[in-house]
Structures are given as C-alpha cells and as structure tokens.
Design goal:
274 residues, 5-stranded parallel β-sheet, EC 2.1.1.198, methyltransferase, single chain, transferase, 11 helices, 16S rRNA (Cytidine(1402)-2'-O)-methyltransferase, alpha/beta
Length: 274
C-alpha cells in the first residue's frame, strides 16, 4: 500500500496516532526533502519515545518527479511506502499530486490520511465562510500575472484562500487595500506554532497593523467574498490598470466597475505613480 501521510505544520502533537504507526511500519519514504523528513522522524522519536527503524528515503519533489516516475517500477509498491511533504497535506501546494496520478493510472493501492492543513485552519479561524470557498494556493510572484491573480481573488463570489511568504505578505495586503480598502480579510501566520498570530479587519486596517508587526513565518490569507458579484464583468480592473490612457479616463473606467468615486481612484493612481 502507498500512504500519503500529512505531517505537522507546527506543533508535533498534531501528528495522528495512525500516522505514527505507519511511519514505524513503512519501509520506503518518498520525501519532498529527505533532510526535513529525517529531522521530523528524529523529533517525533524524541517526543513520543518511538524507535523508528532506518528507512530508505527517496527524494521526490517538483523538480525531479517526472524523471523518477518515468523510471519507477510499479513492483516497488508490493511493500508499504509512505509519501511525506515538508509540512501539511501532500498535494495541496506541495508535491504529491503526480504520485497520486501515477498510482491511479497503474492500479496501485493507496490511501490519503486526513491531517494537518493550513488552508482549512485559516478558513475556519476567519469566520468568513460557512460553506463555499476558493483555494488559490500561492499566487504568481510578480508582474501582470500577480495583479490578475489578486483581481480574480477579489472578484470571486466565494471566500478566497491564499498562501503567502513573509517577503510578500505586506505588499499583497497593500495591493488588496489599494483596490478595495474596505474588503474584509483575515491573515494568520505560524499556524499551530508557539507564535501563531491572527489579524482580521478591513484591508486598510490589516495593512496598517502588518506594517508594525513581525512578518516572519508562513502566512495564509482569507479574503471575504465579493458581495457586489463582479464576476459578470469580462473586463477586470487589472486590464484597465494596464492600459496606456490618461489617468482621468482610467479612473472613470475603474469607477464603472467598482462603484467608487472617480476622484478617489484618480488620487490613488496619482499617488502610486510618485
């Protein structure tokens, strides 16, 4: 059997009893990073007084997974094998998807264990959605693609969940605030760790708080749904922002989409150019 085992995203105590049992019995580990997996097993052995036997670890990540799967003999799965990502649920903004697909196509028996997942912890903590949501993972790092991703998140008729690094969280919230400063958002860092911290409020308020905060750690951002239901617009704000037209004209077009005052938009656009 092939097992996809979620690993703790913060507190080691978040590991499940079933996961511990499988970590003891599986003979081979596919790992996003073998060094991190070895460190995890060592920490778990100290905490739970478990003697993990020496395991064969195979590096398996986004840069080498195609090559490994191309040369992988399905016969290897005649023994118990585990897949471990660095932290959290395999396949959710982490390697693992390709291995699941391989198992399905080759008739390999597998199970995905339930466990730690930062997106769902953030969503429940935000109280911004009772049922429907959109998970966007990591956005494009920069440029026009990033602006379009942010605009998509703001246009969704469901709450949007975004993963972000400490280097970009402040600029992300600033961009959201520029487009819709009153949009309610929730930001959480270091989930399940000692210094877990939460911020909730209007985008402008959260931005001002984050400017004074320690931003170290991994972040999850939840954006409330678009109550104005702008999804029917084929033209996005990001499309207008990219146009080489006078600022006053651009402000009027943006006003047609978001309902804000053209003067207010013009003032912000003018400020952004300085």
């Amino acid at each position: 059997m092939l097992y996809f085992i979620p690993t703790p995203i913060g507190n080691l105590g978040d590991i499940s009893f079933r996961a511990l049992e499988l970590l003891k019995t599986c003979e081979i580990f596919f790992c996003e990073d073998t060094r991190i997996s070895k460190s995890l097993l060592l920490s778990l052995s100290h905490k739970f007084k478990i003697d993990f036997k020496t395991k064969k670890m195979i590096s398996f990540h986004s840069h080498n997974e195609k090559e490994i799967l191309k040369n992988l003999n399905p016969e290897i799965f005649s023994q118990d094998i585990a897949f471990l990502s660095d932290a959290g649920m395999p396949g959710i903004s982490d390697p693992g998807y390709a291995l699941v697909d391989f198992a399905l196509k080759n008739g390999i028996k597998f199970e995905v264990l339930p466990g730690a997942n930062a997106a769902l912890v953030a969503l429940v903590s935000s109280a911004l959605s009772e049922k429907e949501f959109v998970f966007m993972g990591f956005l494009a790092n920069k440029g026009k693609d990033r602006i379009k991703d942010i605009q998509r998140a703001l246009n969704h008729s469901y709450a949007s969940i975004i993963y972000e690094s400490p280097k970009r969280i402040l600029s992300l919230v600033e961009q959201i605030s520029f487009i819709d400063e009153n949009r309610e958002i929730f930001a959480i860092k270091e989930i399940s760790k000692k210094f877990e911290t939460k911020f909730k409020g209007k985008a402008k308020e959260v931005f001002n708080e984050l400017k004074e905060a320690n931003l170290n750690g991994e972040w999850v951002l939840v954006i409330s749904k678009n109550h104005q239901n702008l999804n029917h617009n084929s033209l996005l704000e990001s499309d207008i922002l990219e146009l080489d037209i006078p600022l006053k004209t651009k402000s009027k077009l943006l006003s047609k989409i978001n309902g804000k005052s053209p003067k207010e938009i013009y003032a912000k656009l003018l400020l952004s150019q300085n």
